[in-house]
Amino acid sequence: MHPKDNQLTFIMKPFNSAFKLFLGIFSLLQLNSPFAFSQSLEVKIDSLLETTFTPVGPGAVFLVAKAGEPIYRKAFGKANLELNVSMTPANVFEIGSMTKQFTAISILMLLEQGKLQLDDEITKFIPDYPTQGKRITVHHLLTHTSGIKSFTSMKSLRAIERQDLTPTELVDFFKNQPMDFEPGEEFKYNNSGYVVLGYIIEKLSGKTFADFVQDNIFQKLGMNSSQYASHSQVIENRAYGYHQKDNYVNKNYISLSLPYSSGSLMSTVDDMLKWNEALKKNSLIKAETKANAFENHTLNNGDKINYGYGWHISNIDDSPSLEHGGSIFGFKSMGVYLPEEDIYVIGFSNCDCNSPTTLTRDIAHLTLENF
Using one digit for the tens of pLDDT, what is the confidence trace for 251-295? Predict the structure, then answer.
């Protein structure tokens, strides 16, 4: 070997050692970086969702945000089976009962404007409402403790499901039903209560529920892909809804005047993140007013009901969580917010055969593990 080769070998040995040390330190830093955590989280979430949503079936969109910034945003499956159109993160879904969040905050806006009080009896706004001698308040409606019969549990609903009703006609449909219990005695999830709230919003604001939410929430927050749902309107990026029987079928038709303020809004995961951020930053109502929505309210006997105004009050891995889902023909939705960790998870599905409820909570759990 040439002497210079010996010299080169001597020089390269310490260089190689130093380079390997550098690579080791770099790899260690990378593994402990937020980027590496998000890569690991992405793989875990992908694995979870790909077991439910296939490339050829109805799909879903999921978004995870930390401190208001998306760290996961993906679409799965098809937005339209007949046209073979793949889902994208920008697709618009009917969100069902997640509408109740917007109805509740609209009521709290009217509270701040001095147009109502939470302990006002509903007969203040609907004088002819037959309360059967009971004292039913706005608070009872918001917390599903009114005892009013939920119209979605009535067998006669099938007779009107395709009819376009005014809010007055919809209230008239259920108002004479026997009450399920004394106001404040029980918690029973109730779509009728949120219909009455929508009717109150219209009476006090002079606007339709759709226009009130559009003007005071969607437009103000730049939620440009959100609106009151429509069957006839051409809606950009609309995801079509499906049922699964032996095969997938198009969703059943129901007049969107029936879900009304209990379940007739449409949105995207991006717009819902804007919504969550606006609530977090008190952009729409004051913090002390908002506290009513996120308080775990009580029954007459003092028992907690695990519900605020438009949100379930729960926990994931001992972390407090604010949650709500939605279900309407052809669509299911679920949102989870962990306020202490500032983690938001939202999932939409365009087949009511694939509920995102458990998946969304599982993703929140995975996200907690990674931060």
Answer: 999 999 999 999 999 999 999 999 999 999 999 999 999 999 999
pLDDT digit string, tens, across residues 130-171: 999 999 999 999 999 999 999 999 999 999 999 999 999 999
Per 3-state DSSP, what percentage of the chain is helix, strand, and coil (rounded to 5)? 40, 20, 40
Alpha helices in the chain (DSSP H): 3-31, 34-50, 99-112, 138-142, 167-174, 191-205, 209-213, 219-221, 260-263, 269-280, 287-290, 357-370
Q: Is the dihedral of CA 84, 87, 91, 93 positive or negative?
A: positive
DSSP state of 217: I
pTM: 0.90
Answer whether 263's CB lies under 8 Å from 324's CB: no
Domain span at 54: 40-370
Residue with token string 């007739």: 264
CATH number for the domain that contains residue 330: 3.40.710.10
